[in-house]
Batch of 2 targets.
Target 1
Amino acid sequence: MGYILEVNNLEKNYGDFVAVNKINMRVNQGEVFALLGHNGAGKSTLIKMILGLVNPTAGEILIDGLQYGPKSKDIKNLIGYLPERMNFYDNLSAWETLTFYAKLKGVSSARCKEALEQVGLAEVKHRRVGAFSKGMQQRLGLAQAIIHRPKLLVLDEPTTGLDPIGILELKEMIRTWNREGTTIFFSSHNLSDVQELAENMAIMNSGSMAAEGSLAKLKHDYKLMTRIEVRVSTDQIAMISSLERGANTMGQFEIHDNTLSCYCESQEKMAILQRLLKEGVEIEDFTVEEPGLDLVYQQVMK
Ligand SMILES: Nc1ncnc2c1ncn2[C@@H]1O[C@H](COP(=O)(O)OP(=O)(O)OP(=O)(O)O)[C@@H](O)[C@H]1O
């Protein structure tokens, strides 16, 4: 499928301060990709360089194979952008605001109607934006970001400040646009949103790229194991103890009282459970605990 975004050895210095330090990153066409990192890690600087708003000190950015320069206008048509904070004119209605953006992007006003419907603002399109809640302003921000049907939608901390229903609805919109073929690139501090939405992610730390890949890859890289706990009846303890001692070792495992805990790669868990059943272990109950992005993030930041 190829990459919609390629970043090669990208650097940004502000005087002596290195805000982005030789970053490499790949975003596949059609995926949802998340950018994570602590405050001041360099995420916004990276996003601004991707958008062509800040010039890199060194390195290369390719958007759908194109580089900024003579092709800048073509690149800008490929990208839709929702900044962390949008500043609208309070006295304009949602419709007037969006038709303004439509003109800027050379899009017909018929498309404004569709975009307002997609973000759920069609009913209130003649209301003043100054009277909109944070969530409604966010929706209007999304409408201007998608109005020209971009191939790459860049969202800077899109869930910040939204209430729980607003967050659920935003996630649904992201999924819908992604299903329709738009690549989504978003920055976030919310690990559960990232875990839920992103197929791949990049974690920045003090301007550098600390880790990149899918959650499964990062769990593997940082050796974070899945834990299976199997409870057996007391008369089976001798049997599971013999498993521990015998030739049938299965990854790491420990026994406490009548509970067997196994640590394995996530994809091995079913094989381990099947193996226990085959050995004649009568399982009374079991739980599977997968390490989440929070643990991965902690490890990366160490
Ligand atoms: N125009 C600028 N001049 C000087 N330093 C800057 C400038 N813009 C950003 N920086 C510095 O670069 C570093 C990275 O900032 P950036 O805004 O990219 O971080 P961030 O990861 O987006 O943080 P947050 O999560 O808080 O938004 C920070 O130390 C910031 O102070």
Note: The pocket of adenosine-5'-triphosphate is lined by residues 14, 17, 19, 37, 39-45 (CB under 6 Å).
Target 2
Amino acid sequence: MFTLGDRTFTSRLLTGTGKFSGTKHMLAALQASESELVTLALKRVSLNDPADDLFSPLKAAGFQLLPNTSGACTAEDAILAAHLAREAMGTPWLKLEIHPDPRYLMPDPIETLKAAKALAREGFIVLPYIHADPVLCKRLEDVGCAAVMPLAAPIGSNLGLETREFLRIIIEQAQVPVIVDAGIGAPSHAAAAMELGADAVLVNTAIATAADPVAMATAFKLAVIAGRMAYEAGLPGQHQQAQASSPLTDFLLST
Ligand SMILES: CC(=O)[C@@H](O)[C@H](O)COP(=O)(O)O
């Protein structure tokens, strides 16, 4: 169980809704993942065109929706998108994404902090997508964000925990949940993030673009459970030299 904002979740796997080959496949994969919190771009809420509308089927399937501001390039864009999303989807939950750079989709830290401060003050439950910057995470926490979402690697890159050392520092210092987001390309990456002590991970591309998204969603579900279980069990320390597994066998040498 983990608490985020005013809610408690059983699943520590958050999922995205982009890049699936169709709504039916998306719903089947999300159900297999047992994810409870699903992010959705405001642009995928289409009240006029049912073929392009992800909101209605996701809502009907009972997922809690986490609208995101993907497409916003400035704080002003993101604040407008947040208001529209709250109207359209009826929720104050928000994944705040501001990435003006189309090549790497790197989040803009200055605009993100500015928008986060304004939106948190308005009562939004703000989950900002950011680079794995420990100082920025503390600043976002200070302005009232409900969690921080540092990236593992660029969105859609599937590169895994490229920011591992910085994630470790963020997790050590955070007073709010840390959700590792973006670039998680394999269940082993998700397990590694959870073993590090992340509260949750968000995965989209690796599930949506798998040859079998339902099987991949199941693999991610199990990896997140295993990673968290290992973290709670207490991972052993690492050593540069061998440590004998059965030290008592020394008796052969001493007789
Ligand atoms: C849908 C969403 O929010 C993505 O932008 C998110 O960051 C996931 O990234 P991946 O697609 O790399 O899993």
Note: Strands lie at 2-4, 7-9, 13-16, 37-41, 64-68, 93-96, 125-130, 149-150, 179-181, 200-203.
